[in-house]
Amino acid sequence: MKKTPIDKTDIGILNALQLNGRISNRQLGSTLHKSESAIKVRVQHLQEAGLIKRFAAIVEPKLLGRGLIGYVQVIVERHTEQDLTAFMEKAKALDEIMECYHMTGAFDFLLRIAVADMDEYSKVLMKKLGNLPGVRHFESFFVMSEVKNETAYSIGE
Amino acid sequence: MKKTPIDKTDIGILNALQLNGRISNRQLGSTLHKSESAIKVRVQHLQEAGLIKRFAAIVEPKLLGRGLIGYVQVIVERHTEQDLTAFMEKAKALDEIMECYHMTGAFDFLLRIAVADMDEYSKVLMKKLGNLPGVRHFESFFVMSEVKNETAYSIGE
DNA sequence: GTTGAAAACGGAGCCTA
DNA sequence: TAGGCTCCGTTTTCAAC
């Protein structure tokens, strides 16, 4: 069905496609010394195996009215399965929450919020995050400047 | 030179390309009621204007030996420009640091680290993060499970 | 690999503000 | 008249055999 082990060619494909998701199979083949068809089936397999989740255009939120990025640490009231899953379901549904992780340590969830400005953040915090179920405590931290934001994992193997 | 205002067609293009970066111009045109050529020049303009930063394959780090994600809060010794820029330059150069933000509030930088496992994290912390210049304090938090990780900003205008 | 289909590219001409 | 569009021929890429 699918090949689990990854070889050097797959690594080359993954590294290249992470940097340019629109590179042609032919061009990939010429740098990796494989035929276009060989590249094609490998890319398909990488997608079916879930190594490539999707192809996406990476946009600049600053230029699209989502320039304020905040990270929010969340502590919930009780750590029952119902409460945790209820929180997670609601978090997934909110457009302003770009990322949500269940964390180890001093807090339970870490959220990445993207909004236009502090006015909107204030509204989101009160009207939306405030209504998330079972929350005991929020603490917000804001991004002043983005030093690095890399989507491409450098794969060496 | 370039068109700053974004219209409804651009919004449609951006929303679609964020979800599928490999959708064809022709297909985009048919849903947005424009010709293939019109879509093509708009996508070019969106790239030149920096609204689209790049196209990328989004991969699954768990399947690529980068399954442990940690967030690290960093407090630096002094907030001089030299110290801050020195830290940022070094952070940018480290492959394990996928994201680095200069933050407001109780700590100075937030790092997203992707490594294979706790053994590797321990080494990275001591050998690499420990050598970042001017650091006073680290605090690490780890992702137990990823509830949501969205790269597509929903653009409404 | 080869071949037919599909998509991208690039230019000419049209329409509108 | 400049910007944006459509139309269409050419080149490149895709996809199936």
TrEMBL record, chains A, B:
Domain of life: Bacteria
Keywords, sorted A to Z: DNA-binding, Transcription, Transcription regulation
Ranges for domain HTH asnC-type: 6-67
InterPro entries documented for this protein: AsnC-type_HTH_dom, Dimeric_a/b-barrel, Tscrpt_reg_AsnC-like, Tscrpt_reg_AsnC/Lrp_C, WH-like_DNA-bd_sf, WH_DNA-bd_sf
Protein's recorded name: Lrp/AsnC family transcriptional regulator
